[in-house]
Amino acid sequence: MTPILRAEGVGKTYGGFQALKNLSFEVALGETFAIIGPNGAGKTTLFKVLAGEEARTTGRIFMGKQEITRTSADERARMGLGRTFQIVRVFPESTLMENLTVAIEARERRKGQGRRFGRVLPSGSVTNEAYQRLAAMGIARLHATEARHISLGDRKRLELALTLAIEPTVLMMDEPTAGMSPSERLAIIDLIQSTKEALGLTILLTEHDMDFVFRLAGTVMVMNQGEKLMAGHPNVVRASEAVQEIYLGKEISHA
């Protein structure tokens, strides 16, 4: 079966610094694929390259059988590549309903079905969808609240709702539990798992919380200093002496 996302020899250089070095891996349709590694390993850089936010220096990237190496971030989003961020990106001075309405109407405009600029109010179908998406994330009660007034955990839920509004087939999540309390982390883990199952998503994520990773991931890839150290089943990765050494700090890169 053709993988849903594939990287072949991907490298990224900033001046004379190699942030990514000849990375090759593939993500199977419907799986949860986790990328782990110490700070500075290159995880976020890899996410930016995969999402089209930054151009790779070498290598090729594919979605299914289609090469997307030179396509823009917006084109990749239209193709089904959705992205959340370590630092939550929402419209802080807009209500949760307004945030979702903007995302849904942007999706519809991409399809050529969006409202004309002369209209002021969103259609009933858009409003209903926005509310239902907030309800699915457990934050419908906050629909009239400005995003700047909600907790970090609820902002993460809002960002996830915004990303899902573009109807991705591959959901990329950069540190989805960053800054959360233990109870918030447990709640977001359950939410991500139930959302994946309900929508049949493929998930690619970076995460420092190993309980999160080993609970959700089917495949774990370990990075260090821009390179792939290994990839495999979580139990195999967890038992690796090389991985244990990196997380004990013997080879941590601070680049």
Head-to-tail CA distance between termini: 37 Å
Q: If you average the pLDDT, what whole number results?
A: 87
The SS-based structural class is alpha/beta
* CATH H-level superfamily title of one domain: P-loop containing nucleotide triphosphate hydrolases
Instruction: Briefly note the CATH topology name of one domain.
Output: Rossmann fold
Task: Provide structural commentary.
This protein has 255 residues and is an alpha/beta fold. It has a domain at 5-80 and 168-247: 3-Layer(aba) Sandwich (Rossmann fold). The chain is 37% helix and 24% strand. The chain has nine helices and ten strands. Strands 6-7-8-3-9-10 form a six-stranded mixed beta sheet, sandwiched between helices. A hairpin with a 2-residue loop joins strand 1 and strand 2. Helix 3 (96-110) crosses helix 4 (124-136). The radius of gyration is 19 Å and the shape is globular. Mean pLDDT is 87; it is low at 116-120 and 248-255.
Structure at a glance:
The chain has about 260 residues and is an alpha/beta fold.
Map the helices and strands:
Elements lengths: L4 E10 L2 E11 L4 E5 L6 H9 L6 E6 L2 E2 L5 H6 L2 E4 L11 H15 L13 H13 L15 H13 L5 E5 L7 H18 L2 E5 L3 H7 L2 E6 L2 E6 L1 H6 L1 H7 L8
Parallel strand pairs: 3-8, 3-9, 6-7, 7-8
Antiparallel strand pairs: 1-2, 1-4, 4-5, 9-10
Helix pairs in contact: 3-4, 3-5
